[in-house]
Amino acid sequence: MRFFNNRPLVITILLSVLLVVLMIVTPGSGRLTGPESVAGTAVSGTQSFLGSLVDGVGHFFSSIFSPNETEEENQQLKEQIASLQQEVQTADELKTENERLKSLLNYVQNHTEYEYITARVITKDPGYYFDVFVINAGYNDGVSKDDTVITPDGLVGRVTETGGSWSKVISIIDSRSSVSGTVERTRDNGVVNGIAQSKAQEGLCEMEFLPLEAELQPGDQVITNGLGGVFPRGFVIGQVVEVSAETGSTGKVVTIKPAVDFLHLEEVLIVKAKDVTATTTAQTTPTPVATPTPGTTATPSPSATPTPENQP
Question: Does the chain have fewer CB atoms within 10 Å around its N or its C terminus?
């Protein structure tokens, strides 16, 4: 390379370049010449462009690698997701509740032989099943002890205690419960009892005191027969799921699966007998109608005349 071998020339060029740079960078005290102004403007524009580019790149990487801003944004996104999930869950719960209430309303409209009080389950005894629970309706709402409790699926149990705004219910799967029932197909009568908790892993009942000759089959439906004066007649208790091959001291024993889902119980209906006294009286007592007596005419009453004491 002959150019680099010529040291004087190289030194001269380097000094010239250095001098030009110093003239541009070092601010002067007077006016700039034309070439200086053009060179300064070009360098200034280049510096401004490079400075903006560096600042933009710096802000970009700062936004990516800044831990505080990233964590704050992630937290906001998590809160938004949680809020949306809560809204979806609330909408699903309202939809399910509306379906249950619609089922209750349809039942009430289609079974007008009784009056009903709608109530919600608010607490229950410990355990998997709703064998004993409390509802949010009491004697202030018209609930009385021994009132029958049902759902559109079938018989739930009966009221055992009442307060002003609450009532305690014992269900048919509780071991202290007994319901007189009839097998619809065979018309055999028996007593449906709850099973002790140690055996009630499936929420079943047993039907006892059936005739020895009763020919029951799995799938037979059992309903209340009204005997005993507690439960009205005609409510579904459940279905036969097993017929015992052996007979005990109480006759043939069968296992009953309740029609009601005692694992999931939220709203119930309290059955009340209709007060037909007023309706019957209105229908049987004729309304008296005034009729004129033959041969008589209405006589107007004499007008009052003022007495001397009343005259002005």
Answer: C
Residue 162 DSSP SS3? strand
| 306-307-310-312 Cα dihedral, nearest 10 degrees | 80
User: Hey, what are 185's tokens?
Assistant: 């197909």
Using one digit for the tens of pLDDT, what is the confidence trace for 133-191? 999 999 999 999 999 999 999 999 999 999 999 999 999 999 999 999 999 999 999 99
DSSP states along 110-142: H-TTEEEEEEEEEEE-SSSS-SEEEES--GGGT
Residues in contact with 168: Cβ distance below 8 Å, sequence separation at least 6, in sequence order: 132, 133, 134, 159, 160, 161, 162
* Type of residue at 245: A
Residue 123 phi, psi (nearest 5) = -145, 165
Give the Cα separation of 64 and 73 in Å (integer): 12
Q: In 3-state terms, the chain is what percent helix, strand and coil (to 5)?
A: 35, 25, 40
